[in-house]
Amino acid sequence: MLSLSFLFWATVVVALLSFWWQGDRVKSLALGHVYRYCKHQNLQLLDQTMVLKGVWPVRDESETLAIRRRYTFEFTSTGEVRNLGTIELIGRKLLKLELEAHILPDEDNPLH
């Protein structure tokens, strides 16, 4: 017979694995948003990496409990200077995407 302690810790492990797996899927979704935006704006996403900066429980538009995540990433408009950007999502929905002030890229010489 399974002990109550074993069931508790198994539930905790499954919950953590589920949270990590869902977070990885959301991060991939956010990276896709950033990649498409950078390409559209003639910017280059650097290192193809995003860093999780925060996770908060919030209520979405339909008043259901969701998770708000904020990621940072680096991009360049000239190929010489690294600039910082942030993206926030509530669940899988894009909330905002912000870029640091940067030099506008040369239209005749795209980075990608």
Secondary structure topology:
Layout: H1 4-40, E1 44-45, E2 51-59, E3 65-76, E4 83-90, E5 93-99
Antiparallel strand pairs: 1-3, 2-3, 3-4, 4-5
How would you characterize this protein structure?
The chain has 112 residues and is of the alpha+beta class. It has one domain. The protein has one helix and five strands; from the N terminus they run αβββββ. Strand 3 and strand 4 form a beta hairpin. The longest helix has 37 residues. The mean pLDDT is 88.
Features:
112 residues; single chain; 34% strand; 33% helix; five-stranded antiparallel β-sheet; alpha+beta
Q: What's the gyration radius in Å?
A: 19 Å
Identify the overall geometry: elongated
What is the number of helical segments per DSSP (H or I, 4+ residues)? 1
The largest sheet is: 5 strands, antiparallel
What's the helix-strand series?
Answer: HEEEEE
What is the helix content? 25-40%
Total beta-strand segments: 5
- Average pLDDT confidence is 88
Total discrete domains = 1
Proportion in β-strands = 25-35%
Look at the helices and sheets and give the structural class.
Answer: alpha+beta
Give the termini distance in whole angstroms. 60 Å
Residue stretches low in confidence (pLDDT < 50, at least 5 long) are: none
Compact overview of the structure:
The chain contains 1 helix and 5 strands. A hairpin with a 5-residue loop joins strand 2 and strand 3.
